[in-house]
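User: Structure please.
Assistant: Input sequence and predicted structure:
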Amino acid sequence: MIIETELTPNPETLKFLPGKKVSEVGPIEFLKNDKSIKVSLANKILSLEGTVMVFFGEDFITVKKEKDLKQRKKDLEHISGEVIPTMMSEMGLSHLKLMDGSSVDVKPNYSANITIANREAAFNWLRNNGLGDIIKNEILVSFGRNEDNKAADYAVLAEGQGYQPTQKLKVEPMTLKALVRERIEAGKEMPTELFNVFVGNKTTIKRKQ
């Protein structure tokens, strides 16, 4: 049996045309979480990973898949960071209390990171501005066998013994984010390009307990 397929306006939905009658009782919809489904074909289709809905028409079957997780996250970020903040800004609000006791808050959201290309310049800027203490400094040295005593003395004699330490510098992401928020909100200088700074809004919804 040849089953034709058709695209639909909804990219998450696909239409199948088996060329024969599908439903004897008219259009009927089945959902993933419905535990009372007695139609074998509907159960088999819904058991497939990512399938959330199946619809039987008289001579066709429509199957809806779960929206791609990455796209869902992108949509959520768009709603949280742009749609709701814009709506509330136009109403002159940053906090909204709902009838059921829930609340909606829009607050600034900051992100920043130091790329490899900007690492040296970023660390120098932090040091020159009295912020070098947020840089984590790790020095590693490898010793061979029978060099336990040398390892113990290395803290003060590393270079004198002819060893070349490997130095790793980094700033923890959350520490950098907190610094960016603190300086921007205080009106202090923070090189946005050097630290790849992004400032946006984030919506927080608290449900009544």
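The first helix runs from residue 40 to 46.
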